[in-house]
Fold Aldehyde-activating protein.
Amino acid sequence: MTKLFTGGCACGAIRYSILGEPLFSNHCQCRDCQRESGSGHGSYATFARAGVTLTGEAKHWDMVGDSGNVKTRGFCPQCGLPVYMTFAAMPEIFTIRAASLDEPARYKPQAVTYAARAHDWDRLDPNLPTFAGMPPG
């Protein structure tokens, strides 16, 4: 049996457990992820929504991605930590912030996305496949 991926916000008000392996894990260097993370990129693991159990009440805010589709970011109203994202165009997936994992060492990035928006000071693993935007489907 696969070990659950567990995590949540800093204060524990929001918790998740996820059955299954990530479908995709990436460092995203788009401007939205830079702003949300307060750094040069955001690090994410995306899972099938069917395997996710979520407890606690998150606050949400929507933004429109380059594709024109809405992405909703969930964050803790108490400690402010961004925890997850969902996508209106892809309701079958659930994306978590790698730093929100109880065991962040389990995060294994597979690619760098939106590298066209990277900053020289944000150096990521040069061995990862790198895409100017999102990789093709």
Remarks:
- The first strand starts at residue 5 and ends at 8.
- The mean pLDDT is 94.
- The longest helix spans residues 31-37.
